[in-house]
């Protein structure tokens, strides 16, 4: 699938609650935009905000506003993507060893 951008480095520098046990990246092509998130901690849950990097915002050309996004592998998780003039973010609430793939439309 097309393009790739890791979001781990940006979040580690911007968000103290984003631990070294969480990893996120974006993949996209002309037809689909995905955010993949994994909590690699086998004991602790992670509850934090994932910030989308300026590079990703530019590549995706997202409109300002809030939108619901749903996890597409199992269809169980939902969250909100909040896009402002200054950035974008989604709330994460993951149990140990949990992963999700969110599709942005």
UniProtKB/TrEMBL annotation:
Q: Which InterPro entries match?
A: A-amylase/branching_C, Glyco_hydro_b
Q: Where is the Alpha-amylase/branching enzyme C-terminal all beta domain?
A: 19-102
Specify the superkingdom. Bacteria
Pfam families per the record? Alpha-amylase_C
The name under which this protein is listed is Alpha-amylase/branching enzyme C-terminal all beta domain-containing protein
């Amino acid at each position: 699938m097309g393009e790739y951008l890791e979001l781990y480095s940006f979040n580690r520098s911007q968000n103290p609650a984003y631990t070294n046990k969480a990893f996120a990246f974006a993949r996209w092509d002309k037809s689909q935009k995905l955010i993949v998130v994994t909590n690699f901690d086998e004991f602790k849950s992670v509850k934090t905000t994932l910030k989308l990097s300026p590079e990703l915002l530019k590549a995706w050309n997202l409109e300002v506003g809030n939108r619901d996004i749903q996890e597409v592998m199992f269809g169980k998780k939902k969250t909100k993507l909040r896009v402002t003039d200054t950035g974008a973010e989604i709330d994460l609430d993951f149990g140990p060893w949990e992963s999700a793939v969110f599709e942005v439309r």
